[in-house]
Specification:
Blueprint: H1 3-16, H2 20-38, E1 44-50, E2 55-65, E3 74-76, H3 77-83, E4 92-96, H4 102-131, E5 137-145, E6 150-153, E7 158-161, E8 177-188, E9 191-197, H5 201-211, H6 213-216, E10 220-228, E11 232-239, H7 246-251, H8 256-264, E12 269-274, H9 279-286, E13 294-298, E14 303-308, H10 313-317, H11 322-331, E15 334-339, H12 340-346, E16 355-356, E17 370-373, E18 379-381
C-alpha cells in the first residue's frame, strides 16, 4: 500500500468527515470482491489491511470438520491439526493466498466499489444530520423548479418543497433565500430525501421561538395554532408566570416581533390570543378581533353558541367564514355565531346559563390580551379591532354553519 493511498485516506477523513475505519472497511470489501472476480475463487476469504506497515494480504478461511464436502470451504480436522495441533472442530483455519499481481488488479477493480462505499457513507452522514432536524426550521436557497416542485438547497442536500406545501401568494425565483420547515426525511436509493414546507403550522411555531425569547426559554407556551398559509393565522399563548404578559411578549415593542414574522411569511396576518382552560373565555378570545357578548357551551358535543353585536356579525364570521373557521381550529370547539338580534328573537340571549357580559361580567374581559396584525401592516392591540372587509349587506342572516376543527386539515 503506497503512501499516496494513506494520504488519500487521511484527506477523505478530514474533507468528508468519514472515519478511517469506514474507509478501510470499504476497501477490504472491495478487495474481497476483486479477488473472487479476477481469480475465479469461490472460497471464503478475508483481506487484511495494515495501515502502519502499508501491506495488504488475502487469507482463505476454512471451517474445521470431520468429513470434507467442499474443499474450498472446509478442511478436515486431521489436516488442520497438522498445521496447528490446537485446532478443534468448528474452528476456522486461515491461510494466506495473496496472488503475486493482486495489487495491480485489485487497484483497478476496487476503485468503483470504494467510491460507492464512500458515497454511501456520506449519504448516511447526511441522513443522520437531517433526520435529527425533522420538525425544525432551516434556511435554504431556491435552486430550481419544475412543473410541481421547488428544490431548495440546504448545503449538503437538496430539499423538495412540493406544490401543496408552497404559499400560493408567494413567487419564488432562483437564488432566493427562504426559511423552510423540515417535515420528513427519507432514505432512498439516491440518498437521503428531505421534504420541506412553507405552509405547515410548525413553521409559524418555530418562527415565534426564534423571534420571542420568552417562548424559546419556555416562559411563554404556544398552546395551539390555526393557519391558512399566506392569508391569516391565529395562535394561542399561555404562561404560568404572573409577571409576564404572554400576548405582549409575542407582540414585542410596537409590534416589532410579530411584524418580523409576518414579513417572513409574505405579509400573512397573525392574531395572537391568550389561551384559557375555560372554553367560554378561550372561544371568545379566539374570535378576535370581533367583540363577543355571550358564549354558551355544550360539553357533550363540544359545541358553542356565540352571540355578537349585530354590527360585528360579518367581522366575527370573516371572509368566507375564515375568522370563525380559524377560531374553531384553534380551540377545538364547534362554533355557531348569532347576531344579537337573532339571538334575542330565538330566546337564547340573554342566556340563563353560561356567560353573558350583560349579566354583570367585566366588559373588558374579551378586549384584553388580543393582538391582530392587519393586512397593510398596521396593528391593533387592546383597542378597536380591525377588519379589512366591509360588512356584508345581508348581515341579517340567521347564523352561520358550525365550523369544526375536525372538518379541517391540521
Amino acid at each position: 500500500m503506497s503512501s499516496d493511498l494513506l494520504d488519500a485516506l487521511t484527506a477523505l477523513e478530514k474533507q468528508k468527515g468519514i472515519s478511517r475505519d469506514v474507509i478501510v472497511e470499504a476497501i477490504e470489501a472491495a478487495l474481497v470482491t476483486a479477488y473472487k472476480r479476477n481469480f475465479n475463487q469461490a472460497q471464503n476469504v478475508r483481506v487484511d489491511l495494515n495501515l502502519d506497515k502499508g501491506t495488504m494480504k488475502v487469507y482463505s478461511r476454512k471451517d474445521v470438520v470431520e468429513e470434507v464436502e467442499d474443499e474450498r470451504l472446509q478442511i478436515a480436522l486431521e489436516d488442520a491439526q497438522s498445521i496447528n495441533p490446537a485446532y478443534e472442530l468448528g474452528d476456522i483455519v486461515e491461510e494466506e493466498v495473496t496472488p503475486r499481481d493482486f495489487g495491480r488488479i485489485a487497484a483497478q477493480t476496487a476503485k468503483q466499489v470504494v467510491t460507492q462505499r464512500v458515497r454511501e457513507a456520506e449519504r448516511g452522514l447526511i441522513y443522520d444530520e437531517y433526520v435529527d432536524r425533522e420538525d425544525d426550521i432551516v434556511n435554504g436557497i431556491v435552486e430550481r423548479m419544475d412543473a410541481r416542485n421547488l428544490y431548495v438547497g440546504l448545503g449538503k442536500v437538496e430539499a423538495v418543497l412540493p406544490a401543496g406545501e408552497q404559499i400560493t401568494t408567494e413567487s419564488y425565483q432562483p437564488h432566493d433565500r427562504i426559511k423552510v420547515y423540515i417535515t420528513k426525511v427519507e432514505r432512498t436509493s439516491r440518498g437521503p430525501q428531505v421534504f420541506v414546507s412553507r405552509t405547515h403550522p410548525g413553521l409559524l411555531r418555530r418562527l415565534f421561538e426564534m423571534e420571542v425569547p420568552e417562548i424559546y426559554d419556555g416562559t411563554v407556551e404556544i398552546k395551539s395554532i390555526a393557519r391558512e398559509a399566506g392569508d391569516r393565522s391565529k395562535i394561542s399563548v399561555h404562561t404560568n408566570n404572573e409577571a409576564v404578559d404572554p400576548v405582549g411578549s409575542c407582540v414585542g415593542s410596537r409590534g416589532a416581533r410579530v411584524q418580523s414574522i409576518s414579513n417572513e411569511l409574505n405579509g400573512e396576518k397573525v392574531d395572537i390570543v391568550e389561551w384559557s382552560e375555560d372554553p367560554v373565555v378561550f372561544v371568545a378570545n379566539a374570535l378576535s378581533p370581533s367583540k363577543v357578548l355571550d358564549v354558551q357551551v355544550n360539553e357533550e358535543d363540544r359545541s358553542t353558541t356565540v352571540v355578537v353585536p349585530d354590527y360585528q356579525l360579518s367581522l366575527a364570521i370573516g371572509k368566507r367564514g375564515q375568522n370563525a373557521r380559524l377560531a374553531a381550529k384553534l380551540t377545538g370547539w364547534k362554533i355557531d355565531i348569532k347576531s344579537e338580534t337573532d339571538a334575542r328573537e330565538l330566546g337564547v340571549y340573554p342566556s340563563t346559563s353560561g356567560f353573558s357580559i350583560e349579566e354583570g361580567q367585566d366588559k373588558e374581559l374579551f378586549e384584553d390580551d388580543v393582538y391582530a396584525i392587519t393586512e397593510n401592516g398596521n396593528d391593533e392591540y387592546n383597542g378597536d379591532p380591525y377588519f379589512d372587509d366591509e360588512p356584508e349587506e345581508d348581515s341579517e342572516t340567521e347564523t352561520i354553519d358550525l365550523y369544526s376543527a375536525e372538518d379541517e386539515d391540521n
